[in-house]
Structure formats: C-alpha cells, structure tokens
Structure to design on (127 residues):
C-alpha cells in the first residue's frame, strides 16, 4: 500500500514534492507555489521490471524503463550505480491502472484522481 514518506527531502530551487512508497511502486508529486500539482512520476513494476510514467503540465508525458545498472539487463553494462531512465515500449495503461488501484487506497483523493485521469489521457501510439 502506498504510504507517504513524511520527511521527503526538498531541493532548494526546485518545486516542493511529496513521495509515496510501497513495495511495488513509488509516486512523486511536484507542486507549484500555490499548492497545485505541476506533475508526477509513478514508478511501478518494482522490483524486477520497473517502469516510470511521468507527467508534467500541461500535457507532457514520458514512459521509461528504470535501469538500475545491475549486471543483467542494463543498457549501459554491468555494475551498480544511480538508476537511469531509458527508452521503453508502449505504456500499458489498463494494467498499470489496476496495479495503482490496489496500492492507492490510503492516498489523498485528489492525487488518486490526478493519476487516474492521466492514465486516461496518455497519448496512444500512432497506428
């Protein structure tokens, strides 16, 4: 179940952020100075097939794979280090929405609504 990390580190000069964490996903939400969401990043598929859906206003989306730099499956060779976001395939919105629904019961309703709305708005690939 996603739970807020209350002492999330804030970086000077960057928007305020909140972090929610569970065994299966992380959700970061950034806010403007008036308290409205600027964007979010939902990292899901932990621990073995982690992906990141990122949205920033007004309608900027990306979907990436999280490369943890391990010896298996790294785009940049072996070793460990800082996780990197690398290009990934198609975002499976319905499956991710179901996974998020299982994890979001304790989140503020406005955050749940924002993320759910962006699942619906994610641009479909050209046919």
């Amino acid at each position: 179940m996603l739970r807020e990390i209350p002492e999330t580190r804030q970086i000077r000069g960057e928007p305020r952020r909140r972090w929610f964490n569970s065994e299966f996903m992380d959700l970061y939400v950034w806010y403007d100075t008036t308290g409205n969401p600027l964007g979010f990043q939902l990292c899901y598929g932990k621990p073995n097939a982690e992906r990141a859906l990122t949205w920033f206003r007004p309608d900027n989306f990306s979907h990436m794979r999280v490369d943890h730099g391990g010896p298996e499956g790294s785009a940049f060779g072996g070793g460990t280090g800082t996780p990197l976001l690398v290009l990934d395939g198609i975002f499976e919105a319905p499956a991710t929405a179901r996974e998020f629904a299982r994890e979001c019961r304790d989140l503020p309703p406005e955050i749940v609504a924002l993320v759910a709305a962006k699942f619906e708005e994610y641009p479909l690939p050209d046919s």
Observations:
- Strands lie at 3-4, 16-21, 25-31, 37-44, 51-56, 60-67, 84-87.
- Residues 3-121 form one domain.
